[in-house]
Write a structure and sequence with these properties.
Blueprint: E1 2-9, E2 12-18, H1 22-29, E3 39-41, H2 52-56, E4 65-70, E5 80-84
Parallel strand pairs: 3-5
Antiparallel strand pairs: 1-2, 2-4, 4-5
Length: about 90
Amino acid sequence: MHRWRLRKTKGLALMRYVPRNLGDLHSVLHRLLRDEMPVEASEETGITAKSVGDLRRLSSWPGGLVVETPLHPGRPESIVKISMASRR
């Protein structure tokens, strides 16, 4: 799994990951994220999960997607974001 740098968006610090498989995704989600935390996935990802709990219940992971998790997950405005990985 590739771990990317820390970035800030709308005042929130986010860590960026590119999980290659379901095991990598579970490693990212294991990091103190509660099941109720909302998930925002861009439409082109094909991910329909609305919460971290939904992500944990997925049976497959397509790869090539970026998962951004909050550096401080205890904040009420914390959200997990999923988008397509950019090809450079």
